[in-house]
Amino acid sequence: MSTRTESGAAHAGRMPRFERRVLGGSLLVAAPGLLGALALAWWPPSETTLRWAWLVAMAAATAGLARWQYRRVVFPLYTLAGLLEALREGDYSLRGVAGGVLGDVVYDLNALAERLQQERLDFEESSHLLGKTLAALDSAVMVFDERSRLRLLNPAAQRLLDGERHKLFGLTAAELGLAGLLEGPADRVAVHAFPGRSGRFQLRHAALRAGGRGGRLLVVNDVGRVLREEERAAWQRLLRVLGHEVNNSLAPIQSMAGTLATLVAREPLPEDWREDFRGGLDLIGNRAGALARFLAGYSRLARLPPPQRVAFDLGELIGKVARLVPAAGPARLQITVEAGEPLAVVADADQLEQALINLIGNAVEAARAEVRVRWRRDGECACIEIEDDGEGPPPSDNLFVPFFTTKPGGSGIGLALARQIAEGHDGGVSLAPREDGHCGARARLWLPLTPVASPG
């Protein structure tokens, strides 16, 4: 386009070449008549035959020049018409020679053709990418026109409708049994029976507009399948931890039971059989008690009641918990509570106290010399931070999985219970290495400062 601009600047103030050609040709066509009229005016022939011959000669010359001028004007326009017709038909490969009398116009048409060709290429690439994206989606995507007829669907939608693509196109939403899905809230979860699958689905629909016509977009997600996959994965993690803990108790019980059976079968009994027998029974009792406590912890985690929210001062609760926890830790350990601004929260004080006991207790067990507790306002949430100077959290993704523990004799309940309590208050818990350059871990618990309205 820069060449076109420079050319226009160079010819500023001058008549374009094509216009000069038209003007010059028109004057040349008129020249025989003008010259003949002047000749007749200054030198009129005496004979009538000569006069008529002169008029015929002027007419013939004018006709020949007019045809010549017609070809000079019309043929370049034919070229432009051909280029425009190719553009209208979508053929962007034709190019005109930009050096003719209509060079500027041909140059612009060539540039337009190149731009349209590039835009078509970009459109085809985008359409191909869109098609690949829709084909890879697990969500069913369907587009209906203004008459609610199906115009587009991806493979997931085809499987959901259980039909061949060419037979599904053109059917109305009512014929497909989807008319009710295009009505009601734009985003909802409902149970529906499709030809290909039944279950619980997330339904989203929205209005579309293309070419001055309306349409509807429908997206269907199989919520039930996602929930089943997540549930299966959760059960696998839980059973893996449960199996590990139960085996840790049953293996020594089974081994000691076999040892005692062998001891009883010996004849005669050794002199210290009573002591060995008593020790074996104590071991079995201890392991059975540990297993019972483990199952009691599971029951406690599974039966956590809904929070009973009341208003209280967060700083007072943290100070109370900080005074309770050190009794279980080493005498040299110091718990420092950094006073923050007064924050009134609406939560279940007993449950929040239990969550903080677990988090601060874990910090006390991991710390070398000091544990710091602070609280602050973080937007619309109250945030509690607990830092220790220990070795930091273990590199594992199972820290909040119930019954998972890296501590000898640990139950694996504390972090899971703290997270469950926080999430019951629409908050959360995290555990990560400290970010201030010191060794240790930082546990964060946050919950909203304003009460959350209960459903219904």
From TrEMBL:
<keyword id="KW-0418">Kinase</keyword>
<dbReference type="InterPro" id="IPR004358">
    <property type="entry name" value="Sig_transdc_His_kin-like_C"/>
</dbReference>
<dbReference type="InterPro" id="IPR003660">
    <property type="entry name" value="HAMP_dom"/>
</dbReference>
<keyword id="KW-0808">Transferase</keyword>
<feature type="domain" description="Histidine kinase">
    <location>
        <begin position="241"/>
        <end position="451"/>
    </location>
</feature>
<dbReference type="InterPro" id="IPR005467">
    <property type="entry name" value="His_kinase_dom"/>
</dbReference>
<keyword id="KW-0597">Phosphoprotein</keyword>
<keyword id="KW-0472">Membrane</keyword>
<dbReference type="InterPro" id="IPR003594">
    <property type="entry name" value="HATPase_dom"/>
</dbReference>
<keyword id="KW-0547">Nucleotide-binding</keyword>
<keyword id="KW-0067">ATP-binding</keyword>
<keyword id="KW-0812">Transmembrane</keyword>
<protein>
    <recommendedName>
        <fullName>histidine kinase</fullName>
        <ecNumber>2.7.13.3</ecNumber>
    </recommendedName>
</protein>
<dbReference type="GO" id="GO:0005524">
    <property type="term" value="F:ATP binding"/>
</dbReference>
<keyword id="KW-1133">Transmembrane helix</keyword>
<feature type="transmembrane region" description="Helical">
    <location>
        <begin position="21"/>
        <end position="43"/>
    </location>
</feature>
<dbReference type="InterPro" id="IPR036890">
    <property type="entry name" value="HATPase_C_sf"/>
</dbReference>
<dbReference type="Pfam" id="PF02518">
    <property type="entry name" value="HATPase_c"/>
</dbReference>
<feature type="domain" description="HAMP">
    <location>
        <begin position="71"/>
        <end position="121"/>
    </location>
</feature>
